[in-house]
Structure formats: structure tokens, C-alpha cells
Specification:
18 helices, single chain, globular
Length: 439
């Protein structure tokens, strides 16, 4: 057993490929199987569709690089909670951390588990047992993560390699088939600002969860350099894969068929390889969603662990398992919270309320990076985001635009989400009083 583990600390056992696999595995979930439809509806040509995916990758990579440099400056378990505490103080860190621990992470993980169960039902008959199947997937992912960081990281590498390889192979096979759509004009409205903005929203959702990597960065063998390198490697991998998927859809389906499909990748594969191939897509979706669940549990469990170590969450969750060297209690707590959302699906409405806050937090992280740079925290620095102010500027502009767009699109839910966030400040004051702590 390592000395760090004996002292109650998490082990540094993650290499560069481990970290990159976690990044790609978390981001590559179910979104890619539906997003090409929105892109086909918005893009006036296949080239424009590919460029949209590349633009989305640049925005996503900019956000991930902001998190990675913050992590390089503050290489500690806890990700954005640690950054906010240093840049803005404990109150803001508490609000962001509790919102993520109690709602955003467990509810989103539960939603992915339900998607997994739905597609699993296309592979094997579940007889209406989708909810128990989703719960079983959560429990399995939790157990793999509790069993040790090497077990968890090894599982994630295998899952990431399988789903990237399988999705790429299906797309190449579909494109290589002799079937091709008849030439057709792009869908009505393609190329307009409204259509392109709508497609970009879906694209950025497909690249979401890119911030989770820094939650477990402390367990990298090189916690300063590896997360940033993994972000660059993972972003290039995801962009190439997403462009391949979009090109294969455009090659096999007509623009109208692609734009109107609710299962566009499955329809493209079936059109290219025949109806029986549709079940292969369901298998790939199951692998993708399980990999996303597994990676999200691996990283998100570190947030509750870090907050408990900081006295902002029950201390019980801040302990490391003596034999496995993992935050087993924080992992079990996260899985238990996700199971609540699975069995009480109505609570997913809360996730919709908090979706408004996602871009607020992305923007805050860009500001936090600028604050840390100005204060020269962690310098001299062995790794920093390339491009100087470019990455935080891209994130800030996008965050302002997305937040304003969501506020105009759904003002009621956005207002509720904002109110729930602001309620965290009196909750923090109450927590301080109960714990008898001062800042």
C-alpha cells in the first residue's frame, strides 16, 4: 500500500492514457446518436455540418483547457470547488459544490442510466424492467469504482476504446456501402442564424461534462501536466469521431431524412448495412452510456470527498477506504443519490431547472482562471492553456450568449434555477452556524 493511501489520501495511479480515456469516456455518451439530426437540419451542406462540429469542439476544448489550467495551478481533488474557493471564497464554492453534489451530478447520471436501459431493451427483452436495469447499471459502475482507482481507470480505458472503435467502424461500414441517398436540397431554414444557433446548442450539449476531469486530477501521476494534455488529446479524438459520424449520416441519408430522424445514427447504419444492423447501434449506445456513467461516478464522487475534507459536507464522506484507496463512501453516496432520481423520475425536472446554471458555472471558471493568473497562483507553472487569453475569452462569450438565450427561451425555469442557486448562500450561512465554523 502506498504511503499516501496509508495516510488517508487518494493514490496517484492515473497515467496520461488513463486521464484521456476518462475525459473521452465521460463526454462520449448518448448525445452523438441524436445531435447529427439537428446539425443536418441547420447545415446547408455536409462541409458546413463538419465545420459546426469543429466549432463546437473548439468551444468545448476552450472550456476544458480553462479547467485544466485551474487544476494545474491548484492540483487538488475537488475540481471547480477548489478553484472557486481560491478565486471567489468559500460561499461561492459551497453553493456550486452543493448544487452539483445534491442535484446536477446524481440527476444527470440517473438520466444517462435511464437512456442506457431504454436501448438495452432493444438488445435483450427487459419486460418493462427498464428502471431496475438502470439501477443495476449504476450499482455496477459504483462497485467498479469503489474496487480501486486502477480497476476503475482500466475499465474506463476498455470501455472508451470499445465504444470509439465500434462507433467509428459502424460509420465507416455505412459510408462504404453501395447505398447512397438521391441528391436533394437542404432542409428549409438550413443556414439561418436561428437554425445554426439551435444546432450549436445541441453540439455543446454533446460535448458536455468536459469539466469533470479535474475532479480527479489529483490522482494523476502528473497532476499538473496530464489533465491539460489529456484534454487536447481527447478533444481531437472527439472532434474527429463526431465529424466522421456527421459525414456518414450525410453520405447515407438525404438531408430531409437526417433532419427528421429521432434516431439518426441508427437510421443511417440501417440504410447502409440493412435493418439488422440497427441492433448493433443499440449495443454501442449501451456501451457509450455505461462508459459515461462509469466515468462520471469516478470523477463526481471526488467532489463530495473534497467538500467533506474541507468541512463543507458531512465528514463521513471524506474518508478513503483503507484497502482499495478510493473514496468509497463518497462514491456510495453519489450512487445512492442517483438511484433516488432513477426511481423517482419526476425529480428530473429539477435537472432542467439547474441546466440554466451550467453555463453560469462555465463562465465563472473562466473568470476564476483570470483571477488565478492575476494572483500568480501556483507559479512557476509547468503547464498552462495555450493561447493565453483566448480560451477564457471564448468560454466567457459563449457562456454569456448561452445564458441569455436560455433565459429568453425558458424564462420560468431559468428563474427557478437561478433562485435555487441563490438559495445556496443562506444555506451556507446556516451550515456555518451549525458547524460552528467561521470563514
Amino acid at each position: 500500500m502506498e504511503a499516501g493511501a496509508a495516510a488517508g489520501e487518494l493514490r496517484r495511479e492515473l497515467g496520461l492514457l488513463d486521464v484521456a480515456a476518462i475525459f473521452v469516456g465521460i463526454v462520449l455518451g448518448s448525445g452523438i446518436f441524436v445531435a447529427p439530426s439537428a446539425v443536418a437540419a441547420a447545415a446547408p451542406s455536409p462541409l458546413a455540418g463538419a465545420l459546426l462540429w469543429i466549432a463546437g469542439a473548439l468551444v468545448a476544448a476552450s472550456g476544458a483547457l480553462c479547467y485544466a489550467e485551474c487544476g494545474a495551478r491548484l492540483p487538488r481533488t475537488g475540481g471547480f470547488y477548489v478553484f472557486y474557493r481560491e478565486a471567489f471564497g468559500p460561499s461561492v464554492a459551497f453553493v456550486g459544490g452543493w448544487a452539483a453534489v445534491l442535484v446536477t451530478y446524481p440527476a444527470s447520471i440517473a438520466a444517462i442510466a435511464l437512456v442506457l436501459a431504454r436501448y438495452l431493451g432493444e438488445v435483450v427483452p427487459l419486460g418493462g424492467a427498464e428502471v431496475p436495469a438502470a439501477a443495476a447499471a449504476l450499482a455496477l459502475a459504483g462497485l467498479l469504482n469503489v474496487a480501486g482507482v486502477r480497476v476503475g481507470a482500466g475499465t474506463q480505458k476498455v470501455l472508451t476504446a470499445l465504444k470509439v472503435g465500434a462507433l467509428a467502424a459502424l460509420c465507416v461500414a455505412a459510408v462504404a456501402s453501395p447505398r447512397a441517398p438521391a441528391p436533394a436540397a437542404p432542409p428549409a431554414g438550413a443556414g439561418t442564424g436561428v437554425a445554426l444557433l439551435g444546432a450549436l446548442v445541441v453540439l455543446l450539449w454533446t460535448y458536455d461534462r468536459r469539466s469533470d476531469l479535474t475532479l480527479a486530477a489529483r490522482e494523476a501521476r502528473d497532476p499538473v501536466r496530464n489533465p491539460g494534455r489529456a484534454v487536447l488529446l481527447g478533444s481531437v479524438t472527439l472532434a474527429a469521431l463526431y465529424v466522421l459520424v456527421q459525414v456518414s449520416v450525410a453520405t447515407v441519408l438525404s438531408p430531409a431524412a437526417a433532419a427528421g430522424s429521432e434516431r439518426v445514427v441508427a437510421d443511417a447504419v440501417e440504410a447502409g448495412l440493412g435493418p439488422a444492423a440497427g441492433r448493433l447501434v443499440a449495443v454501442v449506445v449501451v456501451a457509450c452510456t455505461f462508459g459515461s456513467i462509469h466515468g462520471a461516478i469516478l470523477t463526481a464522487s471526488r467532489l463530495g470527498f473534497a467538500m467533506a475534507r474541507d468541512g463543507r459536507f458531512p465528514a463521513w464522506f471524506g474518508r478513503v477506504h483503507g484497502a482499495w484507496g478510493t473514496p468509497a463512501r463518497a462514491t456510495a453516496g453519489l450512487v445512492a443519490a442517483a438511484l433516488v432520481y432513477v426511481f423517482a423520475a419526476g425529480f428530473r425536472n429539477l435537472l432542467a431547472f439547474f441546466s440554466f446554471s451550467v453555463w453560469i458555472f462555465y463562465g465563472m471558471t473562466a473568470v476564476a482562471l483570470l483571477v488565478l493568473r492575476r494572483r500568480r497562483v501556483g507559479e512557476p507553472l509547468a503547464w498552462r492553456a495555450p493561447g493565453g487569453p483566448v480560451a477564457p475569452a471564448v468560454v466567457l462569450v459563449t457562456a454569456v450568449g448561452m445564458t441569455a438565450g436560455l433565459l429568453l427561451q425558458d424564462p420560468r425555469r431559468s428563474a427557478i434555477g437561478l433562485a435555487l442557486l441563490l438559495a445556496g448562500f443562506p444555506a451556507h450561512a446556516l451550515w456555518r452556524r451549525l458547524e460552528g465554523r467561521g470563514e
